[in-house]
Amino acid sequence: MKLGNKELEIPIIQGGMGIGVSLGNLAGHVASYGGMGTISTANPGFLEDDFWTNSKEANKRALKREILKAKEISGGKGLIAINAMVATKDYSQAVNTAIEAGADAIISGAGLPLELPALAANSDILLAPIVSSGRGAKTICKVWKKRYKRVPDFVVVEGSGAGGHLGFNKEALEENTTMSLPDIVKDVMSNICEFGSIPVFAGGSIFDSEDIRSVMEAGASGVQIATRFIATEECDASEGFKNVILNGKAEDVVIIKSPVGMPGRALKTPLIEKILKGESVQHKKCADCLIPCRPGDTPYCITTALIEAVKGNYDEGLFFCGSDVGRINKMTTVEALLNQLLGGMIV
Question: pTM for the full model?
Answer without folding.
Answer: 0.94
